[in-house]
Amino acid sequence: MKLPSIFQLSEKTVLLRWEPSGVSEIEERIQIIATALIERFATETIEVTPTYNELAIYLRTETNTANFIKNLEDFLHRFKIAETSFSARIVTVPVCYGEQFAPDIATVAKYHNIPKEKVIQWHTAPLYGVSFIGFLPGFPYLRGLPEKLHTPRLATPREKVARGSVGIGGSQTGVYPTGSPGGWNIIGRSPLEFFSVEKQPPSLLRAGDKLKFQSISTREFELISIAVASGTYPLKTETI
Amino acid sequence: MITVLKAGLYTSVQDLGRFGYRTMGVPVSGSMDAHSAMLANSILGNEAKQAVLECTLLGPILQFQQDTEICITGAPFQPMLNDIGIAQEKPIPVQKNDVLSIGRATTGMRCYAAVAGGFHTEKVLGSRSFYSTITENSVLLKGDVLPIAKPLEIKRASTDVPYAPKILSNSTLKVFPGPEFPTLKTNVRELLFDTTFKISAQSNRMAYVLETEVDISAKEILTAPVQPGTVQLTPSGKLVVLMRDAQVTGGYGRVLQLTEESINILAQKRGGEAISFTSV
Question: What is the CATH number of domain B172-279?
Answer without folding.
Answer: 2.40.100.10
